[in-house]
Amino acid sequence: MPARGGGPKESHRALEQRIAKLERINAVLIDRVERSIDRQGNAFSLFQTAIGLEAQVRSRTQELTEALRKLERSNAALGSAKEEAERANLSKTRFLAAASHDLLQPLNAARLFMSTLVDLQAEPEARRVALRVERSLQTIEDLIRALLDISRLDAGLVRPSLQEFALDGCFGTLESTFRPLAERKGLRLRVRPTTLTVRSDPVMLQRVLQNLLSNAVRYTRRGGLLLGARRRGAECIIQVADTGIGIPAREHELIFEEFHRGALTEEDDVALGLGLAIVRRQLHALGHALEFRSIVGVGSVFRVGLPLAAGLPAVPEASPGSPAPPGLDGLAGALLILVENDAATLTAMTQLLDRWNCHVLPLRSPAEMQRLVPRLERRPDLLITDYHLDDGADGLALVRSLRRSFGAALPAIVVSADHSEEVTTAVRAAGCEMLRKPVRPATLRALMGHLLARSPVLAGNL
What we know:
There is one protein chain. The protein has 462 residues and is α/β, with parallel strands linked by helices. The protein has helices spanning 7-120, 124-154, 167-184, 202-218, 275-286, 343-355, 366-372, 395-406, 421-429, 441-454, 456-461, and strands spanning 163-166, 188-191, 197-200, 224-232, 235-242, 289-295, 299-307, 335-339, 359-363, 382-386, 412-416, 433-436. Among the domains are: 164-321, 2-Layer Sandwich (Heat Shock Protein 90), CATH 3.30.565.10; 335-461, 3-Layer(aba) Sandwich (Rossmann fold). Helices cover 55% and strands 15% of the residues. The longest helix is centred in the N-terminal third of the chain and has 114 residues, at 7-120.
């Protein structure tokens, strides 16, 4: 039997072992608790961070929402302001159109009277004074037309009517208009014949070339001008060149701004500084390119690039410079029906045509024409009518009526102070020529000579 004295020692060791074991267990448990507390602390920290981020997101979202609301209110205000500006611009354009029509009527009569007065002056001094008055009237006309064109272009009311047409007819009209102006200044005007057919708006393109040629005549004091066209790939390049004073390099961009004018002398025509501004706007609306080069003291060249027609070139018509039938001297002896509801314009136009040795039948209304037609002993050679007549009538109805009586080939010129594209389109669709008031006598005479020279109606009367 073992001694009893060894029992306590064994119990002590067992107790120590148990304590050590419990300590190890305790250490493991404490470690687990600590790790658990750390994990809970990290989760709590993440939870707190998430709460903070959520608050920031909510704050930023609220700020963004408020900013979007402010932007919407600002856009709505801008939209209202834009609509109001467009209404004001449209109202201004309509006012200018109405005012220009009322202004152009008496101005048209004044210019016709003045043209007759210039021809009647025998004394050189009196003739110079009359010519100065005529130039002043021309300046007023140009200003009214330019302001109306600028207003319509800026309001977006000009819609190009693209079509395919031969350039030769356009060039012929321009030649008949500008040759007298060039010769008056002692300049040579050369227009190269062309068979090219292009795609553009014929009315707008002609206005562009008119402005370029007008500038060329105004700023050229010696030498001459050239109008021509050539093919470049699928494009047509129309060139207007002059031997004028040239444009300094520092002004190459300024010339397209409103009311920018070059250096002129007292003998030069008054420049309004709107021609090239209109040219740039019209070419932008047409989608045509414009380039130019200029050398001071040498001259300038403007080039307009536009697409050629997809089809074959059209056969060019006779140009306004075609010779008149023998024995008629262009206009002399032609029988004209003239319809105009404005008494002053009717009188002035009649006197002008009388001096050109035409037989004029002046009328003020469609009713007068209806009474006249059955009494005519021969067919008229040409009808010249205003577009807007009294009681809502229009000149195109007269054209249709006369053509039913005398044949569809009867030439007609429609004159109007209404510069809208709708009127111009309607006139051209009816197969008539269009002249805008105030009528330039030289342009009228050239156009009449052109129509009478090619008219089968006139050929039958000779």
